[in-house]
Design a protein that fits this description.
CATH class of the largest domain: Alpha Beta
Shape: globular
CATH architecture of the largest domain: Alpha-Beta Horseshoe
Number of strands: 19
Strand order of the largest sheet: 9-10-8-7-6-5-4-1-13
CATH superfamily of the largest domain: tm_1862 like domain
Oligomer: single chain
Helix content: 25-40%
Radius of gyration: 22 Å
Number of helices: 18
């Protein structure tokens, strides 16, 4: 195992989008977004909405999200008026074209959405009601910082339709928590797993990070054990991206020791084994869910779908994102909104505050589907790809297949006339395998990019 880990000692994208954000261009504006929306409305396909709340009360030093620290409620209220304006623009656009969107689910992320006061949250939900009644949704997901609220306040959010919460935990080790400036004792997190809190919720998610400073296999083993004991419906295990050249806050972590690549891979492998032994199903790259969870069912039924926010059961494959820096994906297009500092000004100038975008070519669509099949099904049905896109797979991907030979030799994938299948061992290296179909990584080193 260690030999294979050393052999593939390089980073690969998680492919929340293909092509990645760094390839999108700045010549996409509000008008392009409107035209893409028109095409989407003509198809009348189901939609998911994401709303970005960028504020937090304090900075976690590992953070790579688009967030801002503030204690000024006036600034937050001003922002909520802005995002309310953007929501109204969608309402007016849909009304003008006599279109009623079929909305399956929404998510409010950040930042720390739970940092909103009751009044602020109600204001945002009232605006969202212009687009959809949250009480009629299949899922209303909401990110929670356990340090910003108590478990009793979950009842308030549930009264507005919230039926899934995600808790940012990252690590239960007190030394790691202190190093990254996110102190939240196990006893605090446990208060969110009472029968009262769980009543009425589809599930509770826990987010974990591996590769943080001061982490070790032994210390993270305890975090995994504690997480399993809480019995959340979903656990997301992400690899920490240390990019101090991009994220100034991460420079404060440079004084600490970090687990090296091999130890990080061992941490992930041991966590993967532990979660599966506890009955969790490994979904996609880094998600673990209970066997009766809809993501596990979607994996089995081959309806699992990859979006910017992770994996979805495939209810809606079109994502419209609202708020600063948020990213949309629908109808063969990607769009990103402007960042917080330009959000208000851009809303005053154009209908939609678009910063950049991308229109996928046929080649992009083919490669995105192949990559997503590896991520979501761990299997490529060669004949189906050939029929759908009118290509000869082995000819089209001649160079890529040559690059896969190393993975075949190491028993990470199985290759036949009909299928490319990721093996049990290969689950550890799904991003590496997928990257061989990435036309934007040819002769390029992968670098972290994101909103």
């Amino acid at each position: 195992m260690d030999e294979i880990v050393v052999k593939y000692n390089w980073s690969a994208p998680y492919y929340t989008s293909y092509p990645p954000l760094r390839e999108w261009t700045f010549n996409f504006k509000s008008e392009n977004f409107e035209n893409a929306l028109m095409d989407l409305m003509n198809k009348n396909e189901p939609i998911s909405f994401y709303f970005h709340f960028p504020f937090c009360r304090q900075k976690c030093l590992y953070c790579f999200c688009n967030s801002k620290i503030t204690s000024d409620r006036r600034e937050i209220k001003s922002f909520l008026r802005d995002i309310g304006t953007e929501i109204e623009r969608f309402y007016e656009f849909f009304k003008k074209h006599s279109f009623k969107p079929v909305v399956k689910d929404i998510q409010i992320g950040g930042g720390s959405p739970s940092y909103m006061t009751d009044e602020e949250f109600k204001f945002l939900v009232d605006k969202i009601k212009l687009l959809v009644d949250p009480l009629e949704l299949e899922e209303f997901a909401f990110e929670v910082d356990p340090r910003s609220i108590d478990s009793e306040r979950i009842e308030f959010f549930k009264s507005f339709g919230v039926n899934r919460i995600s808790l940012g935990v990252q690590d239960f080790d007190p030394y790691v928590q202190k190093a990254v400036n996110r102190i939240q004792p196990k006893e605090l997190v446990e208060t969110f797993f009472t029968p009262k809190v769980k009543s009425g919720l589809k599930g509770i998610n826990i987010d974990l990070l591996y590769g943080l400073p001061l982490q070790s296999i032994d210390s993270f083993r305890k975090t995994v054990k504690t997480s399993i004991s809480l019995s959340p419906e979903r656990i997301t295990l992400l690899k920490y991206a240390h990019t101090p050249e991009r994220e100034i806050c991460q420079r404060a972590l440079e004084k600490y020791s970090f687990p090296d690549y091999i130890e990080k891979t061992r941490i992930f492998k041991e966590a993967l084994d532990s979660f599966e032994e506890a009955g969790y199903v490994h979904v996609g790259i880094n998600d673990f869910v209970k066997s009766d969870d809809e993501l596990a069912i979607a994996l089995k039924d081959k309806t699992l779908h990859r979006i910017f926010n992770g994996f979805s059961p495939g209810r809606a494959k079109n994502l419209i994102a609202i708020g600063p820096s948020s990213t949309s994906a629908f109808n063969g297009y990607y769009f990103q909104n402007v960042y917080l500092e330009d959000y208000n000004e851009q809303l005053s100038k154009t209908k939609f505050p678009i910063l950049k975008g991308y229109k996928l070519s046929k080649d992009d669509l083919i490669r995105r589907e192949v990559i997503n099949l590896l991520l979501c099904e761990r299997l490529i049905n060669i004949k189906k790809i050939e029929e759908k896109y009118n290509i000869e797979f082995k000819e089209y991907f001649q160079d890529e297949i040559e690059k896969l030979k190393s993975f075949i030799a190491d028993d990470l994938i199985e290759f036949s006339e009909e299928f490319i299948k990721i093996t049990s061992l290969g689950k550890m290296f799904i991003p590496h395998i997928s990257s061989k179909f990435d036309n934007f990584l040819i002769n390029k080193e992968y670098k972290v990019s994101g909103p």
